[in-house]
């Protein structure tokens, strides 16, 4: 049974335009505009799914970082990856389109 706090947080996310789904035994909470998630890879720092952006009708990749704020080193790696992706323009590297978190407040901010 879910606690009231967890249920309230999930309801808040749904109101904000997020939906939850399970992909290969991992829960994903993504903005409603992203559908048809399919896992395409997994590594030490995260898991990647392909999805369809309903707003642009384009295929996109979504990376869910595993515990990005577990330690200072993990946080620095996450920040470094975001900064690099923001500037890289290469045919073999997907460009960064968006960054989001399903967390409802800064105090709960654990997922990126």
Can you describe this structure?
The chain is an alpha+beta fold. It has a single domain (4-108), classed as 2-Layer Sandwich (Phosphorylase Kinase, domain 1). The chain has helices at residues 4-15, 72-87, and strands at residues 18-23, 26-31, 34-42, 46-53, 58-65. The strands form 2 sheets. The protein has a 3-stranded antiparallel β-sheet, with no helix packed on it. The protein has a two-stranded antiparallel sheet with strand order 1-2. A hairpin with a 2-residue loop joins β1 (18-23) and β2 (26-31). The longest helix has 16 residues, at 72-87. The model has no long low-confidence stretch (mean pLDDT 84).
Report the portion of residues in β strands. Answer: 25-35%
Distance separating the two termini: 26 Å
Instruction: State mean pLDDT (0 to 100 scale).
Output: 84
N to C succession of SSEs: HEEEEEH
Instruction: Please tally the β strands and state the result.
Output: 5
- Class per helix and strand makeup: alpha+beta
> Which CATH architecture would you pick?
2-Layer Sandwich
């Amino acid at each position: 049974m879910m606690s009231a706090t967890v249920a309230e947080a999930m309801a808040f996310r749904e109101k904000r335009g997020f939906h939850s789904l399970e992909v290969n035994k991992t829960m994903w909470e993504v903005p409603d505009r992203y559908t048809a998630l399919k896992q395409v890879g997994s590594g030490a720092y995260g898991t990647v799914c392909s999805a369809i952006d309903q707003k642009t009708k384009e295929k996109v990749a979504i990376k869910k970082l595993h515990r990005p704020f577990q330690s200072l080193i993990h946080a620095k790696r996450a920040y470094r990856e975001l900064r690099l992706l923001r500037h890289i323009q290469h045919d073999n590297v997907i460009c960064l389109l968006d960054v989001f978190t399903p967390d409802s407040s800064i105090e709960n901010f654990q997922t990126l």
